[in-house]
Amino acid sequence: MSRRRDPVEERADDTRDLYDIATWERRGALDTVAAGIYHALVASTRLVVVAVALLILVGIGGLSAITDPQIGTLTLLSALPALALALYVRRTDVTTAEPLSLLVATFLLGVLTANFAAVLNSFSQQFFTGLGLVGNVLFFFLIVGPIEETVKLLAVRLYAYGTDSFEAVVDGAVYGAVAGLGFATIENALYITQSIDMPTAGALGLIGAGGGITAVRALAGPGHVIYSAFAGYYLGLAKFNPENRGPIIIKGLLIATFIHAVYNTTVGIGTGLIGFATGLPQLPSYLVFVLVYDGFFGLILFGKIRRYSRAYRSVHDSEDIEESSLEVEADEFDP
Questions:
Q1: Can you tell me the distance from the alpha carbon of 34 to that of 18, in angstroms, rounded to the nearest whole number?
Q2: For residue 228, what are the CA distances in angstroms to 5, 118, 134, 178?
């Protein structure tokens, strides 16, 4: 679908100047001022979003959690599997490597935007608590999944999306994975903080008391990377198909939300069934469930990335062959 044009522009030839009649471009001082105001409003909106997210982080105790050395250590340990998966997604990017500065910025934005989900999830939960099991399922599919995947995508959209380094569809998967890592990191920090009695546990006691929740959060983290990598891939697809940007972004969010919500809905039942069938304790049973669930959708994700990689190599190999042929022909006719 090509850009829609005014009837005057459609019928006019290239010799007619249609500036401020049917077309527009930046020319005079007023145009420059208007463009400057627009970009300032966009930038200030982003700053307001970041500032509000930071205030929420401080308000819910997230900042103190991640700056406490002992909680920070447990959080770092819990984030290692998600970090490894995010690095692997980055490694599969067949195009140019993404700048470290953008990856770090996206990670930090993932940490910040996660706080919107914390507030919205907490507020919305009251409307589902009286509905029993059905309420839990509805809560996961209508609130938790959509909100958490949206705020992770927001972390990419706020900065990396608009840069020149976001130059390929697959870059969206990379930045999405990193945003998921940021989300998982702050979520782990909050869960660990809430699960440990800080005043009564000493340094060694804290590590011992936090070992169980750290292990559980370590297994939960990679899922966030996978979900948001799916959504990020479609954000990348949307960037290079602007005429269908909205539906493409929604498609990515629907996929990520579905995978996320199904995980939340089935993790308890699945872990219990694995334990019943195998006799394994709860944590090993949970590990088996996560490996199967994340492994299945991880294979689908990397299959999508591999298809992009094959297409990328195919078109670039064809260009290289054409260039080589032209060079050979030039050499043959070189006197």
A1: 19
A2: 36, 17, 26, 8
Residue with tokens 């539906």: 247
Domain extent at residue 184: 26-306
What are φ and ψ of residue 42, in 5° steps? -60, -45
Cα–Cα distance measured from residue 155 to residue 311, given in angstroms and rounded to the nearest whole number = 28
In tens, the pLDDT along 66-101 reads 788 888 888 999 999 999 999 999 999 999 999 999
* CA torsion through residues 105, 111, 116, 120, sign: positive
Kindly state whether residue 17 falls inside one of the protein's structural domains: no
**Domain count within the chain:** 1
Residues across the chain: 335
Within-domain flag for 322:
no
Burial of 165 (0-12, 13-18, 19+ CB in 10 A): middle
Segment 176-193 mean pLDDT: 95
Distance between CA atoms of 74 and 271, rounded to whole angstroms?
Answer: 24
Predicted TM-score of the model (pTM): 0.86
**Are 252 and 235 within 8 A, CB to CB?**
yes
Dist CA 166 CA 130 (whole Å): 45
Residue 79 lies in a domain: yes
**Interior CA angle at 213 toward 209 and 215, to 5°?**
110
What distance in Å separates the CA atoms of residue 57 and residue 321, rounded to the nearest whole number? 53
Which candidate, 260, 288, 263, places its Cα nearest to that of 273?
A: 288
Contact in structure between 169 and 233 (CB atoms under 8 Å):
yes
Is position 185 within any domain?
Answer: yes
